[in-house]
Amino acid sequence: MQNLSNEVWVFIEQRNGKAADVSLELLCKGRKLAEQLHGPLKAVVIGEDVKAIAEETFKYGANEVLLIQHKELKNFRTLPYSRILNDLVTKFSPRIVLFGATVIGRDLAPRVASNTKSGLTADCTELRIDTITYLGKECKDILLQIRPAFGGNIIATIITPDNPVQMATVREGVMELSPLEKPNKVKITEIPFLTDPTDALVEIIEQFHQENKVNLKGAPVIVAGGYGLGTAANFKLIHELAHVLGGEVAGSRAAVDAGFVPHERQVGQTGVTVRPKLYIAVGISGAIQHRAGMQEANKIIAINTDPDAPIFQIAHYGIVGDAVDIIPKFIDAYKHKLK
Amino acid sequence: MYNSIVLVKQVPDTANISGKVMKEDGTVNRSKLPAIFNHEDKVALELALQVKEKYGGKVTAITMGPPRASDILRECLYMGADEVFLISDRKFAGADTLATSYVLSEAINKVGNYHFIFGGRQAIDGDTAQVGPQTADKLNIPQVTYAEQIIDIKKNKVTIKRKIDGGHEIVQATMPVLVTVIKEAAEPRPFSAKKVMAYKGAKSLTDLEKLTEGNSLLYTDTLIHEYQERNLFISTLTMDDLQLDVDRCGVKGSPTKVHKVESVVLAGGNQTRVEPTKDGIGILIDKLLEDHILG
Known about the structure:
Chain A is an alpha/beta fold and 339 residues long.
C-alpha cells in the first residue's frame, strides 16, 4: 500500500448542542496519534447550529474541523449521519477515525466501517502507533488497538494491516482529558449537506432524557459490589458503606446483569472508567474487563472470600473474608475512628 | 403478517468461568468453555415470536458458526421458530465482524421475504455490537439498535422505544428494518415440551454425515431426504450455496487481524493482607486516614 494518509479524525458526538466528554477525550488521544504520524488532527462535527462545538475542539488539539450543519441533523439519526461519514471517509481516506463507544458511536461506527470496508475495533482500552511485523511483513506506523476480549480472559492487540482506514471506538473516561495550554488556530471547513429520501426511513418521535445524577467519574471514593455478594439484600451493605464513607456505589458487570445495581453505575470496559482516591471492590473477582475500568485508582481495597481472586493482584490492601461479616466491621471501625 | 429473520449466535460462556476450565498457568482454556445461546439473541427471538403471535407471519432463525452451532438452532425450534438455517463453511473461520456481516447479509438475501431482522445488541464473546449495523448497511436497510420495546406496528411502519445515552427515544422506522435488542426487551420463553419432543431429533448436514460415517448401509442423500420429509432437517448453507466471493469471507475478508493475544494470568499478587478482624480493619482505616485517602 502506498500513499497512506496521515490524518487522524475524531467524530465529535453532540447532544443538545453540547459535545460529549468522550469526544473531547478522544481529541486528546488523537492529538498524540497525529503527532506520531506527523499529520493533522481533524474533528468531524455534525448537527444544527454547532459552530460553538467546532470552536471548542481547537482547545483539545484539533487542527481543522469538518463542519456539517443542517436542521435535519439536530439529533443523531443513523442514516443521514452515516451517509455524511461514508462520503467523507471515501473521499479523504483518513488513516484513523475514532468514535466514542456510546450508543451513538456504536450505532454509527460499524455502519460507516461496513460501507467503507474499513477495519473497526470496539471498546479499545489503549491505542498506540508502532511499527510491527505481521506475517513476515513490516507494517509501518500502524495503529495498535488493544482491548480485553473473550469475557476479559485475554488481552488482544488488533491491527488493520491491509486497509487504508483504521477505525476504533473507546469508552468514556478511558483516555485522559488534557486540554492544550494554548488552543490551536481555528480552521473550519463547512461541508454542505444534501437531504436524501432515505433520511425519512427512521424518524424520531420523542426523546426522554433523565439527567444523569450518577457521577462516578468525579467521586473520590467508590464502593463497588460484584456478583460474589450473592443477593440484592447483601448488596445493600455496599450502599451502607458508601454512605458512611461519603462515596458512590458502583458494580461489576455481573452485578449489573444480576440486577443488583443499574447499568449507569457499572465500572469496567463496557461501563465507566474511574480514577478515584479509594476504590473498594467487594465480591468482585477482578476480570480484566472490570480492572480496565478501575486499576488506576489511587488506592484499591479488595474484599473477597476467594484468596486467589485476581482482584487481589491489583489491590493495595486485601481482606479475605465474607462481605457480610467484613463490611459491618469496617463501618463500625470507621465510625469509631471519626469520634 | 410480518416475517422475521432472527440472527442468533452460539458463544462460549465467558461469564461463568469455573476452576475446571483453568489451565495450570492460570489462564483460561477457551476450548473447554461450555457453548451457550447468546442471551440477547434469545431475547431477539422472543420478540420475533411475539410479533408473529400478535400479527401473524413466519420466524426464521439463522446462525453462522461451526457445525455444533446447530445446538442453538434446535433451541430456536423448541421456542417456536418455524425454520432454521445453519450458515457454515470452513472458509468462514476467523471472520471479523465485517466478513461475518457480508456472509449473513447474503444468507438473508437468500432466505428473503422479511419485514424484520432481529438480533441481540451484541454477543458476549466479543461485545462489539457491530454485526447488526454492518449487516443492515450491506442490505441497505435502516437499523434501530438498543431496542427496548416494540410499541406498535402499522402497515409498513414500526414504532420502537430504544435506549440512548442518558435516556430513551421513540422512533418510527419503515420496514424492512434491522432491529437489535437489549435484554430488557423481553423475557425469553421456556422451551415447549411438545416442541422439544418434536425437534430433538433435528439434524444438520454434518450430523447426518456423522451417522453415515462407518455405516455403509446409510447414504447421506437418502437421510437428508428422510429428515426433510419428517421436517427434521436443519438446512445448511455453505459458501457455494450462497455463491459468495471468497475474498470477502473468513480471515481473508477481515480487515482487522489479531496481532497478539496475551492470556490474563490469574495468579496471586503482592498486596498488603489485612486481617478480617476488627483490629485488622482498624489498622487499615488508620493508614487510610493518615494517607488522606479517607476523611
